[in-house]
Amino acid sequence: MAVKNGQLPSSLLVRTSDGDLLVASAAASYERLNREFTKKFGKRLTITDGYRSLARQHDMFDDLGYPKAAYPGQSNHGLGIACDFGSGVNTYTSAEHRWMDTVGRRHGWIPLWESLGKKRNDFEPWHWVHVPSKDRYPFRKVSVNGRLDVATTFALQRALGRPVTDGSSAAGHLALWKAIQRRLNKRLAGTKGFKPLTVDGKAGPATIRALQTWLRRVLPILRRPKVDGVFGPNTVKALQRALNARRF
Ligand SMILES: [Zn+2]
């Protein structure tokens, strides 16, 4: 699955509580950031713009031109990792912007100038980019709900070591499953009948069976999933329990 800027499959995108689309790691981080922001400023942290499809990038480029709009296919909005924030963050000298520059950074968000490798400047103060490897949010248990939701994806990325969906490699899903395959190959090495998985990022039946085999090994008897190669709610629940027990 080749993933291109502005052409992310919908399976990679999560709708935030503010209505915009982002990749799972950025969306999870945004929700935490929004909670802290609301506590501090008594208002929501609004997103003016999140994921931008290639078609929208073309439209914006036609309307605004460079540098107000990036060249189509080059905006990190097209990777689902960038947000244009409102709520005061969009003003370079505001308290909200300063907050973003300290607290936002702890959640892995860096300003545009830094993402471009430039010196500090006031160009597009609203534009921030999420970098999972810089996100220092502590481990939290996820709810065992059988859904591969934002929190679970994030916990999984954490457990697998970071970065998984860093920078321009917005092929988040693919990278995630590759990391899972590598982890399972390590965990199950030497197990009778186990053939090392091809690390291709595809969550096929062999990968799911290996995952289920590993989960059966770390979970108590009554919580063990069936080894059927199907990535359904029961397997996700088992995965969530293993993550919560720090056994993945
Ligand atoms: Zn932007």
TrEMBL record:
Protein name per UniProt: D-alanyl-D-alanine carboxypeptidase-like core domain-containing protein
PANTHER family on file: D-ALANYL-D-ALANINE CARBOXYPEPTIDASE (PTHR34385), PEPTIDOGLYCAN L-ALANYL-D-GLUTAMATE ENDOPEPTIDASE CWLK (PTHR34385:SF1)
InterPro entries linked to this entry: DD-CPase-like (IPR052179), PGBD-like_sf (IPR036365), PGBDSf (IPR036366), VanY-like_core_dom (IPR003709), Zn_M74/Hedgehog-like (IPR009045)
GO MF: peptidase activity
GO BP of this protein: proteolysis
Top-level taxon of origin: Bacteria
Source organism: Cellulomonas rhizosphaerae
Domain D-alanyl-D-alanine carboxypeptidase-like core: 24-132
